[in-house]
User: What shape does this take?
Amino acid sequence: MRVFELRDGFGLDRLRRVERPEPTPGPGQALVRVHACSLNYRDQMVVRGEYNPRQPLPLVPLSDGVGKVVELGAGVDRVQVGDRVAGIFAQRWLGGSLDAIGRASTLGSPLDGMLTEYAALGAEGLVRIPEYLTDEQAACLPCAAVTAWNALMEGGARTGETILVQGTGGVSIFALQLAVCAGCRVIITSSSDSKLQRALDLGAAEGIHYRDTPRWDKRVLELTAGRGADHVVEVGGAKTITQSLAAVRIGGAVHVIGVLSGAAAELPLTSILMKGLRLRGIFVGSREMFESLLRSLDVHRLQPVVDRVFDFEDTPAAFEYLQAGGHFGKIAIRIAS
Ligand SMILES: NC(=O)c1ccc[n+]([C@@H]2O[C@H](COP(=O)([O-])OP(=O)(O)OC[C@H]3O[C@@H](n4cnc5c(N)ncnc54)[C@H](OP(=O)(O)O)[C@@H]3O)[C@@H](O)[C@H]2O)c1
Assistant: This one.
């Protein structure tokens, strides 16, 4: 079978298309013929060796993939041959709060990921995909959509509240769409006017160009009559967190998700305690959260935004496209259909 792997070191130039024997599903496992994958910012960090420089190689990258179950190992009754399934991000985080076992069980590092024609995965680490989604759309869900769901819906966002969403990448566009479905008002930031327009078309109420309006936190306060946003989907990291804390209302929540501008930040602790803020660290989410998300998507017939689909053989070009940052929503890879 065809696989992309990092073998001799990190870097996109070390990502090689190789042949491996097709795996046989062991007890409790299902063999999945992978139809489509999607890229996350994390996958780029993994390939560059920035996510875990001590990651043992070889490694098959990518956390997110969707396909059909083609064979079952002994003792599997959770899925059947022919089911269309996705692997969950943390294979052993099924529900409840995150623990060390769950955190160490993530696909695409440290475990082999989904950039392969066939993957043998524990059946407990699979969820069934609603019929209405295409393979490419469904492949966008395991990391970005579950993260957005965990932040907002598990984080208590309610109808009528204001959600501040940063940027227009994978997590942020899912956060926008889920918030709109939940009847929230969304303020979104971007470095691009045309992306802001696309976000407005998806239901955002207001857009702020964060380069033209570097004090976007003040603009958020203006747009909320001085009150602030109820929830902030914080993906920017070191260079955005202080403004996020200023833009959120007293008693509001900042969902700490990304470190796009770095991870080392000084926090205004007095402001955090005087405002009674909730800072929630988000680590994607559990299978239980993924299943709640899937039920909601099915009800709302939410259409994940796939910016572009690359063929499997063009995977390095897909990574270059992600790195260039011109995308809106998600980037997918088609492997088979
Ligand atoms: N904690 C978790 O569980 C978890 C899960 C998923 C992702 N993440 C993290 O969340 C971040 C986003 O991931 P992703 O996969 O959605 O990335 P992505 O699809 O590559 O999106 C990146 C987008 O973020 C925006 N951006 C970049 N720098 C920004 C800044 N300084 N301020 C505001 N927006 C900025 C840009 O939007 P514009 O082009 O519109 O400016 C860019 O296109 C990454 O740091 C990733 O590692 C964490």
Summary: The chain has a mean pLDDT of 98.
